[in-house]
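ARCHIVE CARD
SHELF: 3
SLOT: left
DATA:
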Amino acid sequence: MVPLLLVVPLAPVLFGAGFVVEILRRVALAVLVLWLLGFVTLSTSVSGGRGRWKRS
């Protein structure tokens, strides 16, 4: 009975934590994809320069 009383209150907390971790993982993946797309599309200009990354 005592283990059941310890596990039952922890179940919603652990479920909520897992749900939040999954949301954060998806947000991080979306940010990574957007960052990579921005890096690829802004890496070179029409004149062949490196855009804003290199000023020489």
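SLOT: right
DATA:
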Amino acid sequence: MGLCIFAAPEIVVGTVLVLGVVVVALAIEAELDAYASKRKPTSKSPPDPKQNPQPLVPTDPHPADYAEWRERCTDHYIKCTGYFAGMKEPRVYGESLCQSCSRVCRRTGRWPTEFSGHPCPGG
């Protein structure tokens, strides 16, 4: 099938544009299929909706105990910041790692061993 040299230029340009769009669409479809075949299924199974998770219930300390907690947590916080002296301290949720660990300590009365996958030094 030949192309007539007397065909209107707008028809030729339109045909080229349509063919280009079809080629690009086929290329995108092929890439999406390749991506879908490479994706690995997640190994985590969804949680059982019938099971109620155990909520973290912070203890309600007596005011005297809370003062002791605060003092203990402050000591651990100072050790933690001393550990990172001269180094860049990791950030967790917009605050320093030592601040995050201190916040947990003040709620529970114990310096945590880790927070969000990062070890809490100073404990």
